[in-house]
Each structure stands twice: as C-alpha cells, then as structure tokens.
Specification:
Chain lengths: 340, 430
Amino acid sequence: MNYLQNIKHKADRANVSRLRFWIQLFTFLLIVYGGYFFIHIGSQVPTFACPYNQGSPGTCYLIAMQHGLHLTWSELVSYRGLAFFTGFLTFIGFFIVFNKAWCGFICPLGTLQDWITKLRYKIGIRFSRYDSASFQKLKKIKYVILVLLIAIPLGMSNSFFGLAPINHDMQSPFCQVCPGRTILPLASADTSQIFIDFTNKTTLVMSTLGILITALFFVGAFAKKRFFCFFCPMSALQFLFSRIGILRLTKNGSNCTRCGNCNRVCDVGIIGIAEDITSKYIVKDDCMMCFKCVEACPEDNCLDVRVFNAKIFSSTQEGFFKRYIQPNELSLKNEKNDER
Amino acid sequence: MMKDNQQTDRFQRVVKAASIHYDMEIGKTMAAITDDFPDNPAAMKYFYEKHRNLIRNDSNGKLPSKKTIATLCIHVPVELILAVGAIPVRSCAGAFTTEQLGAEFLPAKSCPMVKSTLGAISYNLLHGKVQPDLIINPATCDQKKKLGEINEEISEKFYLLEMPSTKDSEESREYWLQTVFKLIRKLESVTGNKLTAKSLKRAIQEVAHAQRLYRKFNHIRTSAPVILGKDALLVTNAFFFDDLESWSFHLNLLNEELENRMKTGFRVVNERAPRILLTGSPSVFPNMKMPLLVEELGGFIVSEEFCSSSRMLWDTVAVDEWHLYDMIPALADRYLKPSTCPNFSPNTDRIRKLLSAIEEYKIDGVVCQTFTGCQLYDMETRIIAKAMEQAGIQTLFVETDYSPEDIGQLTTRVEAFLHSLKHNRKKQLI
C-alpha cells in the first residue's frame, strides 16, 4: 500500500502536459501511418482515423455510423439494424476506456491543432478572445451537425414528411465537409482529396464547403486553441456517453476556492470547471480530458483523475508549484540567499 | 502644497509626537508578543526585529533609486508593481496613534483601519516612514473608496483602482481586466519603466515562490501546534512591507525550524488548548489585540481568514502562455476570482472557505471580529452566524476597535468562550 502511495505521490508531481505531448506524437503516427505496419483496429474507432488516408489503421466511427444508418425503417429493425447496433456497441466499448481522452490524447486533428498552437506560442502571437456568451451559443453547432449526420443518411433511404428521399450525392455528408478527409491523406502525400467536384450542384456545394472548412481549420486553430473541436460532432457524440467512461475527471467542490486557474489554462475555455462546485463528474461537453486543469489546480485533491473510482492523478499544492515555478527564473535569488 | 504644509511647525510637532507614541505602541505590542510567551522560535527573531523597527527610518534595505508604491488592499496585483521595478508597500495601518491622527479627517463612526491608514499617510508614518510615489487605492468598501478625496494635500498621489461589486459575472471579469490594464499604464508612467513579459514573468515566479513557502508554513502550523498564531500573524504582516526575497528567505528558515520541532514532537500549547480560527476585520500590526488576547488566555490560533494574512497570500497565478497577453488576464483573475472580500456580493465563497478550514484544521471555535464602523464585515457577521450554527461550531462575535479601552471586557468574554470550548470538548470525550 505504501508502495502504491509513493507512486501516486510521484504521479501527482508529474508534468502531464509533457507526457501528453509524447503520447500525442505516438498516437498521431499510429493513427496516420499504422495501416502501413499492418495494424488494424476496426471501423468503430472513436476518433478521426480517416479511411481516406491510406495509412489509417482503422475507420472513424462517424463514417461507419453514416454508412450504417443508410437504412430504411424496416431495415433498421431487421438484422441490418442489428449490425448497426453491434457496431455502435463496439464504438462505446472503445470509447469508455479512454472516455474523452480520445480527443485530448489520440485524435490526430486535435494533435495537429495543438501543434499549430505551439507554433503560434513560439512566434509570440496572441490567441484571440471571444465574447463568451455568443461563443456558448456557437458551440451548439456540433449537436446540430450530429443530428444532421444521423438524419441525412436516414433521409436518403426514407421519406420524411412525405418529401422525396435526399439525393445520393449527399452520402456520408459529414465526411464531405470534414477537414480530416482533406488533411489526413496529406500525411501519405496524397493530395487527391483536395478538390472541388463540379459534377452537380450538390457535389459542388459540399466539396466547396469541405475546402472552406479545411481552410478555416488552419486559420481557426492559429487564432483559437482547439478551434475545430467546438464544432466537432464526434465530441458531441462522445459527450453523450461520457458519464459511463472508465477514465473519469472528478471534482471535490468543498476544496475549490473558485480561483479560476483551471479555467484559465483550459484550451477549450470551460468555465464550469471553475464555477461548478456541486457536480462530482465535471467533464463538460467540450472537455478533451487533457488534464491541464488538474495540473493548474493549487488545492489538494480538488480535481482528480480516476480509473473507475481509484485516483490516479490528483491536484496538489506541491505539484502545482513544482510545475509552475521554473527554478531558472529564481536562480538570482538563490545566489543572493547563499551569500547571506 | 504638500511640501509647504510639511514645513509648518504644527505638522512637524505632530509627526514628532506621534512617532514617539507610535514607537511606544509598537514596543508595548512587541513586548506582549515576545515576553509573555516562552517558546518563541529562534527564526522569528528576524520578524520581531522588522516589526520593532517598523517606523524607524531604516529604508528596510530598499534601494533609494526605486519608486515606492503604496497599496491599500489585497486587490492590487503586487506582481505588476514588482515588474515595473518599484517597491510595493501595503499601507493598511493598525496603529491606534495614527487612528487618532486620521480622526481629524473622517467622521467619528468610520472604521479604525481607514482612519489609521489616512492618518499614517497624511503624517508620513507609514512603514519605515516611507513616502510613497503613488498610493493605489482599490474601490472596495465605501470608506476606502472615498479615502483619496478627503485630504487634498495627499489626494494627488491617490490612484483609485476601480473594482466591480461582484466577481461572478463575465462582465465584472472583463471590467476588472480593463482596470488592470489601466493600472499598468499608470504604473508605467509613474515609474518610467515598461512592463515586459520577462519582468512580469519573473515577478510572478518570485511571488509564487513566496506563496509556496507560505503554504508550507500554513501546512506546518495547521498540522502540529509548533507555532502560535500571534507569530504567524507577524510573518504575514511582514509581507506588507518587507523585501520579497528576504521575506521568503527568512520564512524558509522558520519553516525548517518548525519542521524540526514537528520531528521532535515539541509543542507550544498543551493538548487541551482549544483550536481557534480567526476571521472578520483584519488584524494589522500593531493592532494585535484579539490574537494576543486569545492566546494569552490559553487558546491556540490555528488559522486566520483575514485579508491581512491567508487571503493575501494563498491564491496563485496560473499562466498558460508566458506572454503579456495571457499573463495579465491570469493575474487579473487571481486578484478577483478567489477573493472572499465582503465587498463582493454574493460572497458565499467565504462561508465555504471557513467551513472547509474548520473541517481540515479541526477547529473547535471561531472568533469573528468586526471593527466598529466596518459595515461590510458587520453585515456578514449574521450570515456567518447562521452558517456556523448550522455547522454546530461555537463562535464568538466581537466588535472592537484600535483603542485599548475594551480590553477588560473582551478578556472576560474571550475567557468565557475558551472555557466553554474546553468544557464542550470534555463532554465530547466522555
């Protein structure tokens, strides 16, 4: 037991952000090039493992879901429907292991955005600030996209309200506008996804949107940390099941001083993490479980990362100061102290 | 105008007489602090000396080339002052002598701290007789807010730091950030130095280093009875005027000594001494009336929820990107969001903080002091009373001021309170 406590004590002082950087690098290579090394992790991956990229070791569940929902109502309640639901359960199975850490540690698009942020920080260009009230409204877009992503495939096989079924050019509608489809193949030196399809009006609109969103992805990520994540339907889908995740982020409100440190360092600007002193499960819909909040919390055992109910990383005063005081900034002082 | 007045005979005579009185007041308080208690830590000597020489003009080891900037409240970001190469001096005063001087300018029912502070500034009786180049006065309570308008001879030095009256809304946060930006421009123009990312980062790190030591100190004193509250209050009080580096250095020495005491099981009070939490209007040296009274009568002050101690030093700055664009908002947040000053409404965080301290530090009773005329703390007294009653914590509410007149009456009340705490404890044991 003492041995375990020692390990926990060390973990609480660790620099998780640095660890995360290396994990992200590793998972980025895995998700983008894993296929070349005969790795296959199935077609229910809860992150942007984009099959348009030849090196992808699996398939993003969003594409599987859009395909899987290309069903008539009667098919949906038949064995084909069952196939969809087993696929869905596989997705949940993958998802609950890492919970939303899929976004913070594994998602290649998230990693790309973090690298762009690092670049901006190095250059010393400021990030932009938004009026939080309007941004709160803007964030709801991801749920709209999620609903569309489910409704459009169903609308292709069925008729809603007596309207004609949707044009088949709308197949996998989200993939057509997803920046993952255009960007990730570039890692395999494949530029074939960057095009505008002039076949008909639908393809013209969708492919143009795709290119625009790709451009916005880069511009947005440069101006705001994790810009795209605010609109990501995968994030929305994951959040719906975040409560059953094995990996958990919990808060003990009675230890919280509402100092707002967690909110300050949060890449997605979640205010609730600082203001909410009643919820135990504190994962909010934009949370990507990067655990920077836990690192920045200066109160003992206020924020905890848990596997089931066992704490694996907790906020501590000691850890906070170890991470935030850089001894080289204080070198002069120590020299002076020695003289005394 | 100020110069002219300072030349006058009356002014000089008042300063001279008040200096003598102030010095005597300090001497008396220091005698009570050092002589009435047997087990004072050796490392406290530095802090005792600092306070003994409080108004003696020893420049406190500061370089004369630097500008001195007085602050009248914990809401002034000291990191900014350090970063523009000036010396911050928190000038809230606790002397009865200067309170009497200040009474000349203010209504009779004003708060003694406000009177004392204005008196000390008006008659050059701040710590080390320092003459500040700028006095930053946050618009917190009504009495402080009006302070700069009253004595026109010094009002040109006053800078009103606007404060929102709530801290919970995004609007107030934005407003506060703008006032911090305005303060930076003022500091830059007064000192002639530009705020740079490098200097601010260094200042944040240095203050964080001091905070780390303070938190360690707090951990030591709350987990083992190795230092009395009256000494702890002097440590935090020295932060008002002491050089940051030497303060940190000597606090570190004290921490080491106290850790040794912990190892050897040395205790400054016996096991039966009731563990007390102090809160309310802040005790500022030499107004050590309540803390001394509690400990002289056998209580043990484990912690204080005062803006002259824990509230000033506890909360930290967390910066994500070490450029000015992120450091300044982070700093602004640190001086607004975690504050439990009663000038904010609502101020539920204060109750939560008290309750968590009571649980964590195993507090037996709370002593809540209010200065006569300190309306905000007086109003919150009722809220606290209710919360403490619900939590089942015995609380002593005291209204007092800087004058020594009520000592006799207070002694009886504190004695009875401590007695009843001991009695309750015995009952619990049976």
